[in-house]
Amino acid sequence: MRDLIPAQAVAGSLDAATKKDVLLAIAAAASGLAGADEHTVFDVLWERERLGTTGVGQGIAIPHGRVPGLEKVFGFFARLPQSVDFDSVDDKPVDLVFLLLAPEAAGADHLHALATVSRLLRDAKLCEQLRKAKDEAALYKLLTETVVAEAA
Question: What is the three-state SS of 13-42?
């Protein structure tokens, strides 16, 4: 996970009222760190949401997409102080968001990162710890020091 998400790519309290607000805020926060254009990142995320929600259930969303000019797969985590309707598969609002951006030609790297994040956030105990973590440093530690079991 440390290869995927740098320490500064964690927001402990990202204020947003709607799904679009979440995507705008996370695009703004992540684009500079990822070396990508903020508007391009938002457009990629918004287009992906139009194909189907990235709200995977249990209060979690994993917005993702391929961004032109990006050099490597990049992750950004945000915790929302107020849950937001994300049209999630279980109809529950979202308060944990893990953004994944990938180069256009990432192929298997993008899918591997998506699978890793998905497995990580399926851990209900970890998600509860993420919700209770006191600051960004604690969030980063939880995200990067939790061992993710590989699928058999």
Answer: CCCCCCHHHHHHHHHHHHHHHHCCCHHHHH
Q: Is 109 exposed, middle or buried (0-12, 13-18, 19+ CB in 10 A)?
A: middle
**CA-CA distances (angstroms) from residue 71 to 33, 41, 45, 95, 101?**
12, 14, 18, 29, 10
**45 dihedral zone (left: phi>0; alpha: psi -120 to 50; beta):** alpha
| CATH number (domain holding residue 83) | 3.40.930.10
**Catalytic status, residue 64:** yes
Selecting among 39, 64, 110, 112, the annotated active-site residue is 64
Instruction: Give the model confidence (pLDDT) of 140-149 as tens digits.
Output: 999 998 765 5
Residue 2 maps to a domain: no
Quick: pLDDT tens for 74-129.
999 999 999 999 999 999 999 999 999 999 887 788 888 889 999 999 999 999 99
Domain count, the chain: 1
Enumerate the H helices of the chain as residue ranges. 19-34, 38-51, 108-121, 124-132, 136-145
